[in-house]
């Protein structure tokens, strides 16, 4: 059963190679805000909204202070909960 899961994940990763990345309009701050907003799924911050929509504690830890300083403290707390 584990092999089937690995094969499915491998196919998912391979298929994502052919999807074009979204393009955003605006200045650097506007683009960053759009990306952060897309990572919020109404329950927690995902690692990304594109290829890997999971939550990874390590990756989230890298950006926690920045998110708090940008005004996302309540969403950071909800993510950690």
What keyword list fits this structure?
mainly alpha; 81 residues; single chain; 59% helix
Order of helices and strands: HHHH
Distance between the termini: 31 Å
Taking all Cα atoms into account, the compactness measure Rg is: 15 Å
| pLDDT < 50 runs, ≥5 residues | none
What oligomerization state is this entry in? Answer: single chain
Averaged pLDDT, please? 85
How many strands appear in the DSSP assignment? 0
What is the structural class? mainly alpha
Concise structural overview:
The chain is mainly α. The chain has helices at residues 2-16, 28-39, 57-69, 73-80.
Give me the secondary-structure topology.
Layout: H1 2-16, H2 28-39, H3 57-69, H4 73-80
Structure description:
- The protein has 81 residues and is mostly helical.
- Helices cover 59% and strands 0% of the residues.
- It has four helices and no strands.
- The radius of gyration is 15 Å and the shape is flat.
- The termini are far apart.
- The model has no long low-confidence stretch (mean pLDDT 85).
